[in-house]
Amino acid sequence: MVRFENVGLRYGMGPEILRDVSFHLEPGSLQFLTGPSGAGKTSLLRLLFLALRPTRGFISLFDNDVATLPRDALPGMRRRIGVVFQDFRLLNHLSTFENVALPLRVRGVPRSQYKKDVLELLDWVGLGDRINAPPAVLSGGEQQRAAIARAVVGQPDLLLADEPTGNVDPALATRLLRLFIELNKLGTTILIATHDLHLLEQTDATKLELKKGELTIT
After folding, report:
1. For residue 134, what are the domain limits?
2. Is 110 part of any domain?
3. CB 137 within 8 A of CB 125
4. Is the pTM of this model over 0.85?
5. What is the mean pLDDT of each run of 10 residues along the chain (218 residues)?
6. CB atoms within 10 A of CB 184
7. 126 vs 130: CA distance, rounded Å
8. Are 23 and 208 in contact (CB under 8 A)?
């Protein structure tokens, strides 16, 4: 599914943010990406989402060499990836329901086919009574749950989550982890970036740890 070999990344002429990073994600695996703030977790996720290209090294995604991908192939690749961003990136002019359903609308799925699934998912993340609310009136935790629902609604091949439980209480964090685990059981490969020790203790999934741009696997 994903392979990194000796990947390095720097911004402009600055120092390397990532150095000689090598790992692979097997199809259907669930793994955590840990490390202190500033270690390079978000940068690594941006490489996986094709928002950045490496300064050096090799990245393969869905059996494609990222370095040789033509620009017009990127949208199709990104549609296979679900992303939970730290800043949520909900569209202010859309309701909660419309934000969550957006990936399915982009694919051309008729509303009649996705309405029931979206409503059930919103109930699952505790937003069943907020379906018509715009992002501006949602709390930070509610926006985070909406962003998670949007990322998983299309059952992507690869799900990347950047601190997905950072703005919710431990009970809801556990429930959201269950959602990720159930999605993983359906075949989605999942990488969760987190420093939530409570979350890490609830599963024996492989942990990729970044420290000062270097990666170790435990």
Report:
1. 90-155
2. yes
3. no
4. yes
5. 95 92 94 90 93 94 90 88 89 96 92 94 92 94 90 92 84 84 90 85 89 90
6. 18
7. 9
8. yes
